[in-house]
Amino acid sequence: MRSFTYQRAESASQAAAAVAATPGAKFIAGGTNLLDLMKLEIETPTHLVDVQDTGLDRIEDTPEGGLRIGTLVSNTALSADQRVRRDYAVLTRAIQAGASGQLRNKATTGGNLLQRTRCPYFYDPNMPCNKRKPGDGCAAMKGYSRQLGVIGTSESCIATYPGDMAVALRLLDAVVETVKGDGTARSIPIADFHRLWGDHPERETALEPGEMITHVVLPKPLGGKHVYHKVRDRASYAFALVSVAAVIQPDGTGRVAFGGMAPKPWRVEEAEALLPQGASAVVKRAFANAKPRSDNRFKLALAERTLAGILAEARS
Amino acid sequence: MEFNGPSQDAILTDPKVIGKSTRRIDGPLKTTGTAPYAYERHDVVPNQAYGYVLGAGIAKGRITAMNLEDARKAPGVIAIVAATEHEPVGSSDFNHAPLFGGRKIAHYHQAIACVVAETFEEARAAAAMIRTSYEPEDGTYDLAKVAPSAELEKGGWGDARSDRGDFEATFGAAAEKLDQHYTTPDESHAMMEPMATIAAWDGDRLTVWTSNQMINWGKESLASILSIPEDKIRVDSPYIGGGFGGKLFVRADAVMAALAAKAAKRPVKVMLQRPLIFNNTTHRPATIQRVRIGTDKQGRIQAIAHECWSGNITGQDGENATAQTNHMYAGDDRMTASYVTQLDLPEGNAMRAPGEAPGHMGLEVAIDEMAEKLGMDPIEFRILNEPKTMPAHPDRKFSERHLVRCLREGGERFGWSKRQAKPASVSDGRWLVGMGVSAGFRGAPTTKSAARVALDGNGGAKVTTDMTDIGTGSYTIIAQTAAECLGLPLEKVSVVLGDSAFPVSSGSGGQWGAASSTAGVYAACIELHRSIAQKLGIDPQTIRFEDGRVIGAGKTVPLSDLGQLAATGEIDFGDYKKGYDIGTYAGHFCEVGVDRYTGEIRIRRMLAVCDAGRILNPLSARSQVIGAMTMAAGATLMEELAVDKRFGYFVNHDLASYEVPVHADIPHQEVVFLDTPDPYSTPLQAKGVGELGICGPTAAIANAVYNATGIRVREYPITLDKMIDQLPQV
User: Fold this and answer.
1) How big is chain A by its Cα radius of gyration, in Å?
2) What is the distance between the alpha carbons of residues A240 and A243, in angstroms, rounded to a whole number?
3) Partners of B140 in the beta sheet?
4) Is residue B489 part of a domain?
5) Contact at 8 Å (CB) between A71 and A110?
6) What SUPFAM superfamilies does the database record attribute to this sequence (chain A) (predicted)?
């Protein structure tokens, strides 16, 4: 870990201004991912702006009938909120499928969206990685890739976005609200928040330098049956091989998003329109351009089977 | 004292302390966080500085240059021990890969520098500033590719080859045959406490406060590695946060701490950071196994062969997965062979039940497959082939063997009769449910062990020995032994362990620790009995110890009247054991559910029925067995060090990516001990259990997965990606 300076900001705009004004600065909230990466010097911020005093720790009702979640709301608090449990159960289930109780107590809503990939080559500074060091090459491409991406990847990076919460947020069409260093605010649809790697796997989100997440807004509830099925080798405390978030309506229509497959939560609206035809049609369409490797080809069959299980249980 | 069996000590006729479930006497220290583990021993020596070990970034080759300038100038840095500036250290009988090898790199994450600074963070930051250039060489990393050229093991833990009769001919002519291959991956010990050492020099004398299972091996090794006399070294390791064989040997933490303390001219503490544990230290080598079984039409085994291929950096000793096969099933014509090839991966070495743990993953699945071929119940098939004497050496009698009872009683308790022999015939909602069974065998080795027992003059006693407690409960069974022998309540006995200043014990490893070390304490108590008898003029044959008093020759004398009498004793085991096959046995059972959609495998319940001699402390013995069953669940369903065959290292080198079971994976475990003292094992008729528990649950799980699904995965770990193409249509 490199030496860094530290300050606590009292408001989001103050935090954003501080990060924007300081080269090499980063925000810190729960720090559950950032600190690990700093210990390995994969992240080497020169200055940390702690946002825990910014007061953004409330969940409010919106006039549209949805919820506005402060960026500091912990994973535990968000998943336990009565309104979330009642109206957005897929979000509760996704959050509780992630990490451990201790980590969820510490992890925040905004921070969780920004967690970085778990590609083992990204985590080993001795190995070439375009994400860690642009232009360095990718050790994962011909390496151990069982956990890595099958779609939306590129010639420079095959890593996945590892989280669960964001898969549910993508399904729910959440909107990410931010404030920039100059004090201007904007709203980013979750679909546009995480980027595909392309030639720049080091750029992971739509956020600009110094731009801070302030809230995540959920539109009004969808109704239907909410399911999050996270598939993994051990029963808890593991990243998804494949996860499927779904809301299934009584008429068989619905929404579906996949985790563990791509650089971002993977939802293809034209594919989910095929839900009444069954899992096979949906997955074929959603992953039409998949480029799996021999280590992770199974994820395509697994995604289909997992969705088939969800549809069967939704019908019963 | 030489033990020549059979044991018939009178104290065993009605033991008051031994054999009773007893909470750990060191438990309060652990639950209050006050047990002094190596890295937190702030009080043992002042002025401790922090060392941080840097691991090599390549698997094989040479360091051409190390730029240390920035690191030297970094804040807080006191000294740097670097491969380009320091002679390589020596080796020892117990270490194969170089612990600090100068410019030559033999494996990934080999220690190449230790940076010493005032704080841990400063040492770590400075270590990251060292820029190292390498000249890499090609290495050999793919076991399957080089296995065909492997040769018979030269070292190792068991017979490299054994033959009886003419296996090939009998197998060729057998009515029913099975010929299958199984593979097990490289595995990491992944113990909770990483390797850690504080080292301090006083002139030419070195003290290491460390975390090590074998104090005397550690002392000998350090002497050899550092080229200093053994009597100048003290090793102290009273508490150990798990070892599983990874801490049988001195590792880079101790060596680098010693070198760094010399360079820094002050005490240095080093803990190997978690990402180094997987490639810097040792691991269980992967195996490729072939099992062939030939039977007659009734299912009697006539021919059985088990071969194993593994690799190691030494090219000499690998993972001998055939170890149990010479002991388990009848069959006149038989063969085992263990081949090993050179690989440039990190050093392979002992991990909990070396050989037998992966060996059961081959043999006991093959037995299940053979039973199915024969249309027999797998328990009945095993019982039909229960041998009368050791199958590979029929002249060796079993001392005590109750494997059939383990299987029968286990079957009854587990509800085996409800198992459907036809796979994939039981469902529970979305789950396919199946049961599996395995027999378990693990040797019951014993080795010489010494202790000192001293009366404190206040009616209590203190035991000192260099025995270790690696979380197993050694403190407690040693206290129980002394209490029993001296007629004292448990709380009147104190136990101090793990210091090389104390008498040399068996140490903890190979499932020999509990049986051997308590035998050593027993020997010391017998010596003390003699001294007391002599002092009081009582015939040592008639002296009794009860309720804190010595009784004999018409006298009753409180122990507190005897002053500070002390005795040292050592147990040694005579040649008589060569005539016996002394083992521990188990029937392991498991029920699993397999998600018919996703192929996720979840254990529902496990049972082990164990035949392992006199159980000294059923409470801690049970903990040992359930821990081993948990480790078996990991080995079967998730644990695998993924080898990057291009760069030559284990890719998943942290606990996020090397998955071991969590609580949610282990819903229900039951352990039953048969009351089967073995007079041929030790004076206390005891054997170990810590490794028996990992010998067989693996195969029971694998067989249950097959029973649930009809899918036989022979490449461990059994994960859903290996089954998904064969799961039922959905």
Assistant:
1) 19
2) 6
3) none
4) yes
5) yes
6) CO dehydrogenase flavoprotein C-terminal domain-like, FAD-binding/transporter-associated domain-like
Relative to beta strand B131-136, strand B61-67 is antiparallel
d(C-alpha A240, C-alpha A263), whole Å: 13
- The pLDDT assigned to B271 comes to 98
CB contact (8 A) between residue B662 and residue A41:
no
Contact list, B652 vs chain A (CB under 8 Å)? 120, 144
In chain A, what residues touch B719 (CB-CB under 8 Å)?
233
- CATH no., domain A225-315: 3.30.390.50
Q: A1 contacts in B (CB within 8 Å)?
A: 121, 124-125
CB-based burial of residue A173 (10 Å sphere; 0-12 exposed, 13-18 middle, 19+ buried)? middle
Q: How many domains does chain B have?
A: 3
Task: Determine how many CB atoms are found less than 10 A away from the CB of residue B65.
Answer: 12
Shortest Cα–Cα distance, A288 to chain B (Å): 20
CATH code of the domain in which B100 resides: 3.30.365.10
**Which of A305, A311, A315 to mutate: most B Cβ within 10 Å?**
A305
B32-53 pLDDT per residue, tens: 999 999 999 999 999 999 999 9
Same domain, B12 and B118: no
Partner residues linked to B607 by β-bridges: B589, B670
Low-confidence residues of chain B: pLDDT under 50: none
Rounded Cα distance between A214 and A202, Å, is: 23
Residues A233, B637: C-beta atoms closer than 8 Å: yes
Which residue, chain included where needed, has tokens 């506005």?
Answer: A68
The reply to whether B654 and B683 lie within a common domain is: yes
Pairing of strands B301-312, B333-342: parallel
* Block residue for tokens 């409010």: A60
Peptide bond connecting B717 to the previous residue in cis, omega within 30 degrees of 0: yes
Q: Domain range spanning residue B709?
A: 399-442+582-730
**What burial letters (b/e) apply to B20-40, b meaning 16+ CB within 10 Å?**
eebebbbeeeeeeeebebbbb
Q: What is the DSSP letter of B702?
A: H
Q: Is A120 on the interface with B (CB under 8 A)?
A: yes
Q: Do both B676 and B552 map to the same domain? A: no
pTM above 0.95, yes or no: yes
Judge if B66 and B212 occupy the same domain: yes
How far is CA B207 from each of CA B93, B198, B450, B695, rounded to the nearest angstrom?
A: 21, 8, 22, 37
Residues of chain A found within 8 Å of residue B593, distances taken between Cβ atoms? none
Can you tell me the distance from the alpha carbon of B541 to that of B61, in angstroms, rounded to the nearest whole number?
A: 66
Contact between B465 and B450 (Cβ < 8 Å):
yes
CB contact under 8 A, B124 and A40: no
Q: Tell me what ipTM this predicted complex has.
A: 0.97
Determine the average pLDDT of the residues in A104-123.
Answer: 97
- The residues of B carrying an active-site annotation are 691
CA neighbor of B311 nearest in space, from B497, B437, B195, B153: B153
Q: How far is the C-alpha of A96 from the C-alpha of A101, rounded, in Å?
A: 8
Residues B517 and B617 in one domain: no
* Residues across chain A: 316
Helix axes B697-709, B356-374, angle to 10 degrees: 40
Q: Phi then psi for A224, rounded to 5 degrees?
A: 75, 180
User: CA angle at residue B78 from B77 to B81, to 5 degrees?
Assistant: 100
Regarding whether B418 and B511 lie in a shared domain, the answer is no
Residues 6+ away with beta carbon under 8 Å from A82: none
B482 assigned to some structural domain: yes
Domain boundaries, chain A: 225-315
Question: Are B537 and B685 in the same domain?
Answer: no
pLDDT at B12: 84
- At B723, the amino acid letter reads M
B280-329 confidence digits (pLDDT tens) = 999 999 999 999 999 999 999 999 999 999 999 988 899 999 999 999 99
Residue that is last in its domain, among B560, B578, B596? B578
Tens-place pLDDT, residues A247-302: 999 999 999 999 999 999 999 999 999 999 999 999 999 999 999 999 999 999 99
